[in-house]
Amino acid sequence: MPQKFSFSAIGTHWWLNIYDLNISDLDSIISDIEKMCLEFEQNYSRFLDTSYISKLNETKKLVDFPSELFEMITLGELARVKSLQAFNIGVGSILEKIGYDKNYSFVAKNENELSSINFTDSAFEVIKDPRRKQRGIRYSNRTVCFRI
Question: pTM above the 0.90 mark?
Answer without folding.
Answer: no
